[in-house]
Amino acid sequence: MTQTDDSRFRLDGKTALVFGGRGTLGRAFCETLARAGARVRAADIAPLPEPFAGGEISHAVVDVRKEASVATVMREAVYNGRLDVMVYAVTTKPDDFYAPFEECSLEGWQTIMRAELDGMFLACREAGRAMSGGGGSIVLLSSIYGIVGNDQRIYEGANLAAVYGKATRGARQIYSHAGYAAAKGGVVSMTRFLAAYWGHAGIRVNCISPGGLEHPGENAEFVRRYSERVPMGRKARPQEIADAVRFLASDAASYVTGHNLVVQGHRGAHGSRAAADCGGHALVAGIRRNHHRNRSRRIPAARSGSHQPFFRRADWRCACEWHGHG
Ligand SMILES: NC(=O)c1ccc[n+]([C@@H]2O[C@H](COP(=O)([O-])OP(=O)(O)OC[C@H]3O[C@@H](n4cnc5c(N)ncnc54)[C@H](O)[C@@H]3O)[C@@H](O)[C@H]2O)c1
After folding, report:
1. Shared domain check, 299 and 159
2. Which among 95, 211, 231, 250 would be 20 to 30 A from 323, CA to CA?
3. Centre of ligand 1 from the C-alpha of residue 299, in Å
């Protein structure tokens, strides 16, 4: 390996395609990848409201629900026979997104699944074809709600239904459709499946689970309730997620695949059984150790000083039950 440390984080000479490239995060991803040296194509169903800032970024229209559309945009993104990076950051909200679960329509559920999972399937399949022979990096977007349950109490007094446009039918300040959580869990599973499937081909597949982002317009009550549950005391910023994408896209992550990179200020601190599902990285190990310490304090007979028991499933389940997340 002859690259210097810094150059392994650079993306010079690489070609990247970002689905959802005009969204809040997609735009930050495009601009960050371009600043790192990549030639970027931003694909989205929406028109481009304002030009991208700097770098080499072109844009294309795509509807990820349509096979031909995804295939076309993929074909056009390949440059000199190569696609090195594909990021999938598409999401959508049906108009009953904020309705209580018992009132959600099948149509709304399917709207989410088509954008999140059908589109992701098509984008991954086409990216795999484009990357075959040369390898590459695929980065998918899950969410905090792909790994922990959605504590409805944080939405009391929130104005989210008003902030996020048309998604107001049945709104009772209950946020985040069950379909969103189900789809985001699917993203994590798909990541593992494809990482294993394409390991031999040099195609790395990872996902990122961001915590809630700072959004202009969200009221102080919601931001306060949310932030109180985050040990870091605040919501995420788009650049913080984009930096994670850049890392996973780069050669600095050359041995990272099948991973769910959780970027949420450790919001899982009180819901860590599900967080422990996210793939065994350092954050998860830390959570398990904390469980161990807490349990050891209250149950004198419990072993302390060794973290080994937490790699045995029975002990792990026991610790989670202690915290009420069993
Ligand atoms: N914003 C957050 O707080 C947050 C938190 C956790 C996870 N995420 C995830 O990050 C990703 C990006 O989120 P975001 O906040 O940028 O969302 P966003 O709504 O700002 O952007 C999503 C983009 O997807 C595009 N899109 C929707 N349907 C499409 C279709 N059929 N074909 C092509 N493009 C389509 C939209 O036009 C939009 O530009 C999503 O997967 C989201 O679930 C976001």
Report:
1. no
2. 211
3. 45
Please tell me which residue in 180, 197, 226, 255 is annotated as part of the active site. 180
pLDDT digits (tens, 9 = 90+) for 288-298: 333 333 333 33
Q: Could you report the per-residue pLDDT of 33-80, keeping only the tens digit for each?
A: 999 999 999 999 998 878 888 789 999 999 999 999 999 999 999 999
The answer to whether the CB of 256 falls within 8 A of the CB of 262 is no
**pTM metric for this prediction:** 0.84
Quick one: which atom of ligand 1 is closest to the CA of 90? 24
Rounded Cα distance, 112 and 129, in Å: 25
Note the pLDDT tens digit of each residue in 32-45. 999 999 999 999 99
Give, for ligand 1, the residue of 19, 87, 91, 150 to mutate: max count of ligand atoms closer than 8 Å to Cβ: 91
Q: Which amino acid is located at 288 in the chain?
A: R
Q: Is residue 1 in a domain?
A: no
Tally of CA atoms within 13 A in the half-sphere of 30 that contains its CB: 28
145 tagged catalytic:
no
The boundaries of the domain holding residue 302 are 272-326
Are residues 299 and 177 part of one domain? Answer: no
